[in-house]
From TrEMBL:
It comes from Equus asinus. Disulfide bonds join C9-C86. SMART domains: CUB, WSC. This is Kringle-containing protein marking the eye and the nose. One of its GO terms (biological process) is Wnt signaling pathway. The gene is KREMEN1. Residues 27-41 have a biased composition (Basic residues).
Length: 428
């Protein structure tokens, strides 16, 4: 979340190394003194103009680099070192503010107790995405994606200390330092491929009695890589846990006695980050960078010597295998060089009619064979002897002509008075 082209501050505690205090003219060593030259300006408090000072770590354990400032009065005073490439974790950068309109056009307030987190919490409660501090006491909120429109300034131009905490930077004269309001939230839902999760109230010390959950869910990720760039939890009762998002099983637990490794992986795409603090021993907290990794399955590509026909054949074999495994009886495909053509409706009906007529002819032939076999027609001489008085023999005849209807009608035998007709079958 650092500004483009800048690097994060080293995650070491600010007191390591502490660095030597200054001495004057070989005299006994004494603490440096904070008298600063100040320049008044319109629309804001006096801006401190420190003299050149040696660069060293801050003496109070803060995560950002600081410098001692020695002047002619007793006491100790320090400000951020002039390292333009260094950015505080969660800082979006330092930007110019010409005031008409300001970079952030949402809600705003002023406070003589302003800190980074009080401004962020105020903007988050108003449902704004960005929070900005200016001149040490002014807080601005907004959703403006073009907050950079007046240009980016050097980080050293946003080093005016917050009125509520002199260890934090709160912008400068006509310079606004920006943060995402997700910083320091107690809980949240993350689905981006990479992001940073901060302890509650960050960069302030986390409050007592905190219970916070953050869900990190990136569908399709093979594993999630975690890197704790900052981990300052001193109480063994305060803890950070990673849980399986599906089973809620604790995967790993860190506290004041069990610090996390430099980096590690969790082979899941859904992880829950849990934080708990008791009622004593507050500390700076943590900042963890996560990155989800998606592994693409290997894709088989045809070799240079493999022809297109071989590729199509191989794909067809895969299709047939898949069809057999799914119990599909037929796989119908078309040639890739010829577009599919529709079959006319009359052709389908003609084929169906031909099939019906063929079946009907076979059935009729079988019936005709059975009929003639069971009712044999006698000769004309024997017919008179077999005929009983008052009755006449009858048979059924079936005539079939292809592609036409089938006619079934009854035939009668000829009487004795019709001697000239040699055919024993006459029609009604």
């Amino acid at each position: 979340m650092a500004a483009p082209g800048s690097r994060r501050c080293p995650p070491l505690p600010g007191a390591a190394p502490r660095g030597p205090a200054l001495t004057a003219h070989g005299a006994a060593r004494r603490p440096p003194r904070p008298a600063l030259r100040r320049r008044a300006h319109a629309g804001g408090p006096a801006r401190a103009q420190p003299r050149p000072r040696p660069r060293t770590r801050n003496p109070d354990g803060d995560v950002s680099p600081w410098c001692y400032v020695a002047e002619h009065e007793d006491g100790v005073y320090w400000k951020y070192c002039e390292i333009p490439a260094c950015q505080m974790p969660g800082n979006l950068g330092c930007y110019k503010d010409h005031g008409n309109p300001p970079p952030l056009t949402g809600a705003s307030k002023t406070s003589n107790k302003l800190t980074i987190q009080t401004c962020i919490s105020f903007c988050r409660s108003q449902r704004f995405k960005f929070a900005g501090m200016e001149s040490g006491y002014a807080c601005f909120c907004g959703n403006n994606p073009d907050y950079w429109k007046y240009g980016e300034a050097a980080s050293t131009e946003c080093n005016s200390v917050c009125f509520g905490d002199h260890t934090q930077p709160c912008g400068g004269d006509g310079r606004i330092i920006l943060f995402d309001t997700l910083v320091g939230a107690c809980g949240g839902n993350y689905s981006a491929m990479t992001s940073v999760v901060y302890s509650p109230d960050f960069p302030d010390t986390y409050a007592t009695g905190r219970v916070c959950y953050w869900t990190i869910r990136v569908p399709g990720a093979s594993h999630i890589h975690f890197n704790f760039t900052l981990f300052d939890i001193r109480d063994s009762a305060d803890m950070v846990e990673l849980l399986d998002g599906y089973t809620h099983r604790v995967l790993v637990r860190f506290n004041g006695r069990n610090r996390p490794p430099l980096s590690f992986n969790v082979s899941l795409d859904f992880v829950i980050l849990y934080f708990f603090s008791d009622r004593i021993n507050q500390a700076q907290g943590f900042a963890v960078l996560y990155q989800a990794i998606k592994e693409e399955p290997p894709q088989e590509r045809p070799t240079a010597n493999q022809t297109l026909a071989e590729v199509i054949t191989e794909q067809a074999n895969h299709s047939v295998s898949a069809a057999r495994s799914s119990k599909v009886l037929y796989v119908i495909t078309t040639s890739p060089s010829h577009p599919p053509q529709t079959v006319p409706g009359w052709t389908v009906y003609g084929l169906a009619t031909l099939l019906i007529l063929t079946v009907t002819a076979i059935v009729a032939k079988i019936l005709l064979h059975i009929t003639f076999k069971s009712h044999r027609v006698p000769a004309s001489g024997d017919l008179r002897d077999c005929r009983q008085p008052g009755t006449s023999g009858e048979i059924w005849s079936i005539f079939y002509q292809p592609a036409t209807s089938i006619s079934i009608f009854k035939k009668k035998l000829k009487g004795p008075s019709q001697q000239d007709d040699r055919n024993p079958l006459v029609s009604d």
